[in-house]
Each structure stands twice: as C-alpha cells, then as structure tokens.
Write a structure and sequence with these properties.
By secondary structure, this protein is an alpha/beta fold. It has ten helices and 15 strands.
C-alpha cells in the first residue's frame, strides 16, 4: 500500500454565527491503506457552513463537500484503479473512501467532469427532488422559487419551465435578474431591499391568482411571502435558508397563513431519498434534457484558495457553482 501526502482543510473552530478565516486550517497529512481517491475537482457549497457544528464535523477534522477524483488505490471489488467517482471527501487532495461511504461512479467520462459538481451534481439532483417528488409540478402551474440565480434555484426554475409551468424567480440584483430573463426566459423579481408588503405586491403583479407551488432557498422573508402568495392547499418545498447560514437566524414568519390556507411546508434533504430517485431517475432525465439547460460556474485554481473563496461566496452570489481545480492536475 502506498502512502499519499495530502493537503486538506480542517475546521479549526466552530463558527457561532459568521465564519471567518480564523475557522479554517490548511494542514498536510498522510493517507494510506484501503481505497484512496486523488481529487481532481472540488466544490464549494453554502450548505457546508450549516453543518460546521458538533455532530456533523469534528473540530480539527476535515470539512465535508462534494469532489470528483480518480481511484489511485483500491481494496474493493466495486472500484478499480482509474475509475472516476463523485464522493463527499472534498476540501482535500486525497481521500480514503470508507467502507460504507457514499460514492457515485461517473456514468460518462467523455463530458466535462466539472459538470458532476454543477449541472449534474447534488444541487441539480436536489432541484429534481424538489420539483418531482415534493412539489410534483404540473403543466400550467404558477411556480415560485427564491434564490433563482443559485445553482439549485437555477436548475429548479428550468425543470419547472420544462414541465410547462409559469415560473417566477426571486433574486438579489438587477444584473442577475436580467441574465436569467435573457437566458432562461422566466419572470424575475429583484427582492433585495423590499419589505413584505412590497414583495407581496410585486408577486401578485406577476401571478394575480396566486402561486400553486414554491421552493425556498433564501430566508424567512421570502418564506412568509410565499405563504401569503400561495393558493390554498399548496406546498412549499423548504430546501434551504442560505442567508441564515453565515449569520444569525432572522425572526420567523407568522405561520398562521399556512393554517388558514392548509399549506404544507416540507423540508427535505437529498440524502433522505432513495438512489432510484436521486441517481437513476435523475440521470435518465438529464440524459434527455441536459442540452436544454443553461447554468453558470466559476473555476478557481488551487486548494490553498478554498477558505477565502468560501467566504467570498456569501458576498458574491452571481458566480454560479464554484469549482476548485487542483493544480497537480
């Protein structure tokens, strides 16, 4: 068995609210034994901030996120040297794959491997579950989605549109709204700076009769607006609250509206759904639809820049999916 020297980012301290450079530490460690993956591309996900807490990531332990890499050593019958896999051992150069650890053998290595961290990655698979399993969107429905310029929101908006829905997205700047209108062809509201009354007014201008379904990615303000704007017996897919990940939780919305309107609010995570839905059906769907999708992604070179890039992500939401390319590749 070989010994692999690997740089990896550890969580030095648990962040209480905002995260800073002082919470990260880049170390060099040795990986040996078992099945080892040499990472080719890493990714940054806002949700990583939400799990930087006891019970999820150990203090002084490696940070978790998606990665694409090549198997360079294997003691398993289901993986051979040279296989390309997606796995959760990101934020490091090499990863020792645990016996029961999740991985996905890349189904098609002829396409750009970064796609498996962006349009074919966990964010799009999450959007797929939201649209298909939670909301069960139907042709002609009025569907809303906050954080529409993010990786999950952008994928969700297009999936709903492909199903024949009328889609309304919420985003934080005119620049992002214009890009989405021009490239995706949906209605967009710039919601940053609007109070609840203003946001509700703008929403009803687009959908005077209300929304049939809604997916939340941003914060309680958008969630409250959704309850106000939804028709009775509708569903909210509560996918994320990104604006709260790097700061204190804002006061919650008044849930009375969900009672009066019989609105179902369902939180969900990709890991809670079967492989048949999150992998098999997703890749079958994308095999047909991928050429129709449009998305944004940015590439940054070098594992050394991951901490600063992660912090920048919460300030600059318009870069699309952020991919870290490891220099040795």
């Amino acid at each position: 068995m070989k010994n692999f020297e690997s740089k990896q980012w550890n969580l030095k301290n648990y962040p209480v609210a905002k995260i800073g450079l002082e919470h990260f530490e880049l170390i060099t460690t040795n990986i040996s034994g078992g099945t080892v993956i040499q990472n080719k591309f890493l990714t940054l996900d806002p949700f990583a901030k939400a799990i930087m807490a006891p019970g999820h990531i150990e203090k002084d332990g490696p940070i978790i996120s998606d990665a694409v890499g090549e198997v360079v050593q294997s003691d398993r019958e289901d993986l051979s040297i040279g296989d390309i896999v997606v796995h959760k051992g990101g934020w490091r150069e090499y990863h020792a794959l645990g016996k029961d650890e999740w991985y996905l053998k890349v189904p098609d290595t002829s396409i750009d491997l970064t796609y498996y961290l962006s349009i074919l990655g966990s964010t799009s698979r999450t959007a797929f579950i939201g649209a298909r399993n939670i909301l069960k969107v139907q042709p002609g429905w009025n569907v809303g989605v906050s954080g529409v310029s993010g990786a999950t929101g952008l994928a969700f908006a297009q999936m709903a549109k492909f199903e024949g829905c009328n889609v309304l997205g919420f985003t934080s700047s005119l620049e992002k709204a214009n890009w989405i209108k021009d490239n995706i062809g949906i209605e967009v509201i710039v919601s940053k700076g609007l109070n609840h009354a203003q946001l509700s007014e703008e929403t009803f201008k687009v959908f005077p009769n209300g929304m049939d379904a809604y997916q939340e990615h941003v914060d309680n303000t958008h969630l409250f607006n959704a309850m106000t704007s939804l028709k009775p017996n509708s569903t909210i897919a509560l996918c994320g609250l990104m604006r709260t990940y790097n700061g204190p939780m804002a006061p919650g919305p008044n849930l009375n509206m969900s009672i009066w309107k019989n609105i179902n609010i369902q939180g969900f995570m990709l890991a809670n759904f079967p492989k048949e839905d999150t992998i098999d059906k997703f890749f079958q769907y994308m095999g047909q639809k991928l050429p129709k999708f449009k998305w944004k992604q940015s590439t940054i070179d070098g594992i050394e820049n991951m901490d600063s890039a992660f912090l920048d992500m919460f300030q600059n939401f318009d870069k699309g999916k952020i991919i870290i390319k490891l220099q040795k590749w």
